[in-house]
């Protein structure tokens, strides 16, 4: 199941970047589950990784490689997370980088490994390495959709986003792909997302730009409150296009980057496991951003709110009860107002005088719903995107060993 | 659905306490939904209420009445929570106490009101008051099961627990009833629970005893992380039996009280909405109790862990991922061990060498499962009880407006 229609966008080539995929037989026979992405020598790269304490072997190895060398290849497998695999998992991740490095003529440290799939199973590293030559052989500047498909797990759709801005008369392209559908409550990163641009941006600036854009996109989505062990997001800048070196350039690039990341993050929610609703939670009138996020995530994680959304039931008491248990000190409930779409649901902490079940039900029947919560405490706002909790979510996660 | 067999215990009378129920037509026609419990004049009473900021009108009124007068009657309705009902809700709760006070010949402030059911609907106060004479007429010293049945909402079973200890050669009885099945993550109280003893205990001591016992029982259970607006637990001591006035008496009474409250709390989890599993989470080796509770609740609230439990799938990667995202600073995953029943699942942060799928699956196939998590950081432990996440949980909460 997934919310709304979606087709993979036409993504322009970015000079020097080539993408390829092959079948390693890790996820299922007859499915491309191994992706290689080649970066030109000039590339700078920023990365954000999961803050789950049990981070996976490839996360450790990718961090180490990033410190040691300039990245030339991203190596991504699906079907196996190589997480909870101890020392052998680290050796397996290193081995896969070593093999790709030898085949491509670069140092092993120039390869960044990423894995997604079942936690706790040994990585079938021989099968993975055996499929590398084929992935290299098919590298192509227009392999974006192939790569986006190759990294999926329980996702039902490939996710891509692209935008183009002009800097000093030069076009700058940003292309991103992502995967993710369950175990989604990114903490400082996302499931897996790979973003590319032809702009020239130095390392330190690139890292700041990525961090900020991730905070406003992937870090504002949740399916099930479960932060993955393998979350990773990279931003690679090939440096062959316009140079981003003034505040004005930076702010325009940052806006375009956030736009791409928000589109990918929203695509993950639209394709959330079992999702029948795409829900935008806007919390306003908070004293600071974390307070707004705390309220939004408490509502977004409430199984009772999520099942009411699934049932298209305008059960505002559950929203109110979730707001009331959010970790906000001295919450004055008499100042709280809640809107469901354009319908006033709660005013001054109780049901709005103008509210009718008919009006509420009409909004809830939509597949895309906005809930706006006014706290009446300050001037700060935050937005979080989430999905509902359906029978299919339970079926998918009772059947699938992730 | 509910886990295991259960029958309502034979509960002895406590001198001076009488219980009655009648049909007010609030929940459904032909069902007792109004309960009155009479306390003798000598009674001292301690109470714990929800910390949800949106607490219900009866919670406000009960708090106020407790400060103003000695309680003589508990008045409980199901089918309507009288929460999110604003000023009218307060007037309605007061009105119901006023009417009962007039009928029984006591001050309105001697009546404590409690409500559970749908949030946000006006309390049908006239129907409630009209049914009060009948509830008073049937007051009986052995009405325990009738009262326990009369307070249920989505519960499938009446919940009662009783114990008897001897203090200075005198028998002391503790009887408790409770309701709760969903919107269960009590914060400093439970859904609704009413506990009674014939012991003589002064107010201040009684409040401390209740607070400690609640912290080790109702505050250690969760179904769905949703803290109710109406949670309340009272402990009434009639004072007609043995006096609890030495440290030795107090510690023996405290142990007996905790035993009764744990039995009631566990009964709520066994009867959790859609539950097919009763799960005990023991976290050991924490630096302090809150750290152990944080880890236990993070695992207990994980939808992925809960669906794996429902599927009887020993998916230890999900447990490990949940531990890894718990709010514990500097968690050293290499020290973590996890046991599933008597089977070692995780050692030093990875799959235990001795682990086999057969052994893990055999434990998961049981309806009562213990998961023991060793953090290797200190000497403190905590235990939390929870249920699984099933299709029926979704069905119940997609269909029921609570």
TrEMBL record, chains A, B:
The keyword Ubl conjugation does not apply. GO terms for molecular function: L-glutamate N-acetyltransferase activity, acting on acetyl-L-ornithine as donor. The record marks 116-117 as: Involved in the stabilization of negative charge on the oxyanion by the formation of the oxyanion hole. CDD domains: OAT. It is found in: Cytoplasm. Pathway: Amino-acid biosynthesis; L-arginine biosynthesis; L-ornithine and N-acetyl-L-glutamate from L-glutamate and N(2)-acetyl-L-ornithine (cyclic): step 1/1; Amino-acid biosynthesis; L-arginine biosynthesis; N(2)-acetyl-L-ornithine from L-glutamate: step 1/4. The active site is at 190 (nucleophile). It catalyses: L-glutamate + acetyl-CoA = N-acetyl-L-glutamate + CoA + H(+); N(2)-acetyl-L-ornithine + L-glutamate = N-acetyl-L-glutamate + L-ornithine. Its EC number is 2.3.1.35, 2.3.1.1. InterPro entries: Arg_biosynth_ArgJ, ArgJ-like_dom_sf, ArgJ_beta_C. Substrate binds at residues 153, 179, 190, 273, 397, 402. The keyword Phosphoprotein does not apply. SUPFAM superfamilies: DmpA/ArgJ-like. The record marks 189-190 as: Cleavage. Heterotetramer of two alpha and two beta chains. Belongs to the ArgJ family. NCBIfam families: ArgJ (TIGR00120), PRK05388.1 (NF003802). Catalyzes two activities which are involved in the cyclic version of arginine biosynthesis: the synthesis of N-acetylglutamate from glutamate and acetyl-CoA as the acetyl donor, and of ornithine by transacetylation between N(2)-acetylornithine and glutamate. This is Arginine biosynthesis bifunctional protein ArgJ. It comes from Chromohalobacter beijerinckii.
């Amino acid at each position: 199941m997934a919310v709304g229609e979606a087709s993979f966008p036409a993504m322009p080539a970015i000079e020097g970047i080539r993408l390829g995929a092959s079948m390693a037989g890790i996820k299922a026979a007859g499915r491309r589950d191994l992706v290689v992405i080649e970066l030109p020598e000039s590339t700078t790269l920023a990365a954000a990784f999961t803050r789950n304490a049990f981070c996976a072997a490839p996360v450790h190895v990718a961090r180490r490689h990033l410190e040691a060398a300039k990245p030339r290849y991203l190596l991504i497998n699906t079907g196996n997370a190589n997480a909870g695999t101890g020392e052998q998992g680290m050796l397996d991740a290193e081995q896969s980088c070593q093999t790709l490095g030898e085949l491509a003529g670069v140092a092993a440290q120039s390869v960044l490994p990423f894995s997604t799939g079942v936690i706790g199973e040994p990585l079938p590293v021989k099968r993975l390495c055996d499929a590398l030559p084929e992935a290299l052989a098919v590298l192509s500047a227009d392999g974006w959709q192939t790569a986006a498909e190759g990294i999926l797990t329980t996702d039902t759709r490939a996710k891509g986003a692209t935008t183009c801005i002009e800097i000093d008369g030069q076009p700058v392209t940003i292309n991103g792909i992502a995967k993710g559908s369950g175990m989604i409550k990114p903490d400082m990163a996302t499931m897996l997302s790979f973003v590319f641009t032809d702009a020239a941006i130095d390392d330190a600036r690139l890292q700041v730009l990525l961090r900020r854009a991730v905070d406003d996109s992937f870090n504002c989505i949740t399916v099930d409150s479960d932060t993955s062990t393998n979350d990773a997001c990279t931003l690679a800048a090939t440096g062959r296009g316009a140079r981003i070196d003034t505040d004005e350039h930076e702010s325009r690039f940052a806006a375009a980057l956030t736009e791409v990341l928000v589109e990918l993050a929203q695509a993950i929610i639209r394709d959330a496991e079992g999702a029948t609703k795409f829900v935008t939670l806007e919390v306003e009138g908070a004293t600071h951003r974390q307070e707004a996020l705390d309220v939004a995530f408490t509502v977004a994680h409430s199984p009772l709110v999520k099942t009411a959304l699934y049932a298209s039931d305008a059960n505002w008491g559950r929203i109110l009860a979730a707001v009331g248990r959010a970790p906000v000190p001295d919450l004055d409930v008499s100042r709280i107002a809640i809107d469901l779409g354009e319908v006033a649901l709660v005013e001054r902490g109780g049901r709005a005088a103008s509210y009718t079940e008919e009006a509420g039900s009409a909004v809830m029947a939509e597949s895309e719903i906005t809930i706006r919560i006014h706290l009446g405490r300050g001037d700060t706002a935050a937005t979080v995107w989430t999905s509902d909790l359906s029978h299919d979510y339970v079926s998918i996660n009772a059947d699938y060993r992730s």
